[in-house]
Structures are given as structure tokens and as C-alpha cells.
From TrEMBL:
Cofactor names: Mg(2+)
Recorded GO MF terms: UDP-N-acetylmuramoylalanyl-D-glutamate-2,6-diaminopimelate ligase activity
Statement: the UniProt record of this protein carries the keyword Glycosyltransferase: no
Positions carrying N6-carboxylysine: 215
Name of the protein this chain belongs to: UDP-N-acetylmuramyl-tripeptide synthetase
Domain of life where this protein originates: Bacteria
Main function: Catalyzes the addition of an amino acid to the nucleotide precursor UDP-N-acetylmuramoyl-L-alanyl-D-glutamate (UMAG) in the biosynthesis of bacterial cell-wall peptidoglycan.
Family matches, as InterPro entries: Folylpolyglutamate_synth_CS (IPR018109), Mur-like_cat_sf (IPR036565), Mur_ligase_C (IPR004101), Mur_ligase_C_dom_sf (IPR036615), Mur_ligase_cen (IPR013221), Mur_ligase_N (IPR000713), MurE/MurF_N (IPR035911), UDP-N-AcMur-Glu-dNH2Pim_ligase (IPR005761)
Domain (Mur ligase central) ranges: 107-306
Binding site for ATP: 109-115
Pathway the protein acts in: Cell wall biogenesis; peptidoglycan biosynthesis
Naturally occurring in which organism (per UniProt): Halalkalibacter alkalisediminis
Amino acid sequence: MKKTLIGLLESLEIQGNEDIDITGIQLDSRKIKDGDLFVAVSGHESDGHEFIHSAIENGAVAIIGEKKLKEILSVPYIQVCDSRKALSILANHFYDLPHHKHKMIGITGTNGKTTTSYLLHHILQHNGKTVARLGTVEYVINGDKRESSLTTPDAILLQQMLHESEDEYVVMEVSSHGIDQYRVHGPMFDYALFTNLSHEHLDYHKDLENYYRTKKKLFRCLKNEGKGLVGTYGSWGERLYEELAEELIPSISFGQSSGGESIYLKAYQTVPNVNLVFDDNGKEQVIQMKIQGEHNVYNAIGSYICAREIGLSPNEVIEALETFEGVPGRFETVEIPNGARAFIDYAHTPDGLQYALQTAKECTEQSLYHILGFRAKRDCSKRETMVEISQNLSDYVFLTLDDLNETEKEKMLAELRELSKPYQKIVVLDDRTEAIAHVLSLLRKGDGMIITGKGPENYTEEYRYKTRNDKETILKILEESGFEGFKTSL
Ligand SMILES: CC(=O)N[C@H]1[C@@H](OP(=O)(O)OP(=O)(O)OC[C@H]2O[C@@H](n3ccc(=O)[nH]c3=O)[C@H](O)[C@@H]2O)O[C@H](CO)[C@@H](O)[C@@H]1O[C@H](C)C(=O)N[C@@H](C)C(=O)N[C@H](CCC(=O)O)C(=O)O
Ligand SMILES: Nc1ncnc2c1ncn2[C@@H]1O[C@H](COP(=O)(O)OP(=O)(O)OP(=O)(O)O)[C@@H](O)[C@H]1O
């Protein structure tokens, strides 16, 4: 790709005569190549403006920043009000407004983004459409899988992938960080889907009101003909739906009750599998899925409504939903030959944990064992509530390590011990894989073990078992114990 600086600046409405070629845009001075434009942002950890010289040394031919510099640079410097916003606009233009090529579906909410994006991907693909999917687990473009760096990639990577993608549809998760940092910006979505909102990321947003307002901004990124799809099974969704109506942003709701919607849930069952009965424009429909849990009732109906809005028939959507196998690390099940079960789930918020444990409890006839930890340097204010939920819904609780995020192990263990103090049945174990081995040795017919927090994510710490993640650990221990014929849900 090649664009002129002045051509790019026109999109920012800044005058100038810097007639030089720009061959790439970078946010990180370490990634700069000859001919790139470097955008300096005032970050949360460091200040991008401090890396301007290093960017120039690495080959940057122009710099955009939001601070007045004390010196004159050897390359043009353009000062803007907000570097991240400018970056979003520039990246969009650099890659020729690639959202126009696709039907774009943005999914936001505290929980259920990944699951809903997988459901929609599956429904559309099952019906012969080509689909890109961007989110926490991976980025899939033109059928190729790439490692995901952030749930919502930065504006440069996002626009680059949208440009590269030849897919008709793009289903992407939009995090509140992504919205706040203008990784998405401007009218780029055909559909914006809100799943729910609950306690999460308060280290970043400070309170739920700010968190909500940030999520709501996604609905300002709808294209002219775009539509909002709002889960109203929680009070924040109800509020959002009302506010969008007041602001004349076309949207439809999905939830438990009929508030005049054309599609609404009539009844459902959550275990052994999700079964839904709902009304679609006066006709009763039934879906029998392979996945479990009340939360997946809402994820299924949200994806159903989106697929119907896109133009698929009820049968086309239902047939696809009934063949959906599940999402890696989202209530993934391992059937142990002695009649016990293990569940791996990515729940890392109080609300998600409530749903995950409730589902595990419903799937377990005897005792339920819960193994959980907390990622260090992430919203600590949710930890006490999560421990309380675990204490209430499981019979035995084991607190162990999650991603330490460069925190001292002893410091984290002390925090876990403090959290466990009020509860007698909570045990703190420092090796996640040993905690799994210990609980596996206790499981009898009818018992369940649920491990939450990491889903399919790989360990960042060294443990006794040299496995990469919770699922691998379970399978390795079962193999070593001589169990044969165990079945996994994915
Ligand atoms: C808290 C947060 O959101 N941080 C994001 C933010 O980083 P930042 O503002 O703190 O950047 P910084 O590290 O202070 O550095 C400032 C600038 O200096 C630049 N720099 C830095 C060093 C250097 O040598 N040269 C250089 O140019 C950096 O590239 C950056 O542009 O902007 C960066 C560039 O876009 C992101 O990579 C970074 O995500 C970090 C890695 C992160 O962990 N983010 C998480 C919290 C996040 O965004 N998660 C959400 C999902 C959450 C969820 O729903 O679970 C996501 O969408 O992934
Ligand atoms: N609709 C929902 N409501 C509440 N909890 C949910 C819902 N869907 C999933 N969960 C719970 O949240 C966990 C994470 O689900 P999922 O990955 O789909 O959410 P997410 O919004 O993508 O989260 P993240 O952005 O952190 O990856 C699941 O493992 C489950 O425990």
C-alpha cells in the first residue's frame, strides 16, 4: 500500500503541503519500518511521545501526536486533539474504508461476545456465506486463523485485516477498551449487538455508569441503514433499548418476555442441553442445541435474531444452531469413564461465574468441586463477590493461580489466602495443575469439577505438569492415571 501524507491528512481536515509517501502506520516505535507514519499516544503505561526519536531513527517519515513538542523534528509533526481518534480515522482511510466491502456485525457486552460471535459465524457459514471472525480466541480472515492479540485489535491491525478480508461478513467482538480507545470509530457497522452488562473492568472505567456509557457508544458506529440488537434480559439492556429508541437509533430487543417484539422466547430448558421454544412472527419454533446453560439461551436467541435480520429463514438458522458444537473453553466438557465430569469455562466475571456454576450444578448429581483463580492486575473489586458465588454454588472450592501478570507469586497467594479467610471450605493451592490433579483424584461417579477463568488460554506460569492449559492438564492426568475412553465435548 502507498498513500501520500497530504492525502491522508485530508481525512483529518488539516491543511498542509507535506507531499510525501506513507507506506504504513504504526502505534509502536519498535514496529516502525522505512516510510511509516508514527502515531504517538499518551498511554496508560507510557507516553508514545517519548518514542518519537526512536520512531524517526527506525524510519518514520512523519509523526502525529497530541502534545506540543519543545523542538522541531527532522520530519513533519502534526498535532491533533486526540491521537487515538486521529489514528482510527487515518487507518480507516489508509486501507480505503474497508468496512464498506463487508456486512459488519459488532458484538459488545460484558459476557457472551465470543460465544455469540462463534454462533453467528457458524450460522452464516452453514448457509454458504464467507465470514471473518475477530475476537478473544483468534482472528479468522479468509478462512485463515491468526493469533489474537486483543479482543478488539488496535485500529491499524483492524483496518488492515478488514482490507485483507474478502469475506462477505465480518463478525467481531467489540470490547469497552476498544470503544474507549477508538479502535472502532465512525459509521462502520451494519449491526451492533449488545449482550449484557455487569461488574467488570472497573479498574479501567471506574464505575458501571461509565462502563455502560462506553458500551453504548458502539451504537453511534452504525452505518446509515444499521440496526441495534439489544439483549433486554438485564436492566442495563432495558435501559439501552429505551435510550436508543429516544435517540431514534433503530433497534430491536431480545429477551425473555414479549414487549411487542416479532421474535421472543416462550420457554426454554438449559440442561442436559439448551432447548428453546420461541415465537417468530406468530409461528412457534423449537431449537434443540448441543450446548448447555441459561446464558446460552440468550446467546442463541441473540444470534438467531441477528441472522434473521440478515435475511436467513427460520429453518436455515435453526438447522445451523442445532449443529453448533460449542466454543473452545466455554463450558467444554470432559466425560470421565468413572461417571464424573469435568467442565472448563472462561467465566471471569461474577455474572458469568454465576451462570457457569449454575449450569455445572445442574449437570452434576453429586458433589461439585470448583477450581478458580484471578488474573493479577485486573479489576480486583470483583474477587470477593466471585468467591462468595463459588462458596454458595459449589461444595468444595480451591483457589489457585491464574495469570500472574508479572506480580510476585507470594503476593498473589497472600491475596488468595485473605479472600479465603471467611470461608472454611475454601482451600488455597499454589500450583494450578496440582489443584486439578488433586480434585481429579477425589471425583467419584456423579461428581463434577469445574475449572474457571482461563478457558482455552495457555498458562503463563510454570507448573508441575508441563501442559499448556487446563484441558491439556485434565487429559494428561487422566492418561497417566490409566483412564481410557474419556470423551470431550469439542
Ligand atoms: C489498558 C489498555 O487497554 N492498554 C492498551 C493501550 O496501551 P497503553 O495506552 O497503556 O499503551 P502504553 O503501553 O502506555 O504505551 C503508549 C504508547 O507508546 C508506545 N510505545 C511503547 C514503548 C515503546 O518502546 N515504543 C512505543 O512506541 C505504545 O505502542 C503505545 O502506543 O493501547 C495499546 C495499543 O492499542 C494496547 O495494546 C494496550 O492493550 C494492553 C496490551 C491490554 O492488555 N489491554 C487489555 C486490557 C484490553 O484492551 N483488553 C480488551 C478486552 C477486555 C475484555 O473484554 O476482556 C481487548 O479489547 O483486548
Ligand atoms: N450471555 C451471557 N451472559 C452471562 N454470562 C455469559 C454469557 N455468555 C457466556 N457467559 C459466561 O461468560 C464466559 C465467557 O463467555 P464469552 O467468552 O462468550 O464472553 P466474552 O464477552 O467474549 O468474554 P471476553 O471478552 O472476556 O472473552 C462463559 O464461559 C460463560 O461462563
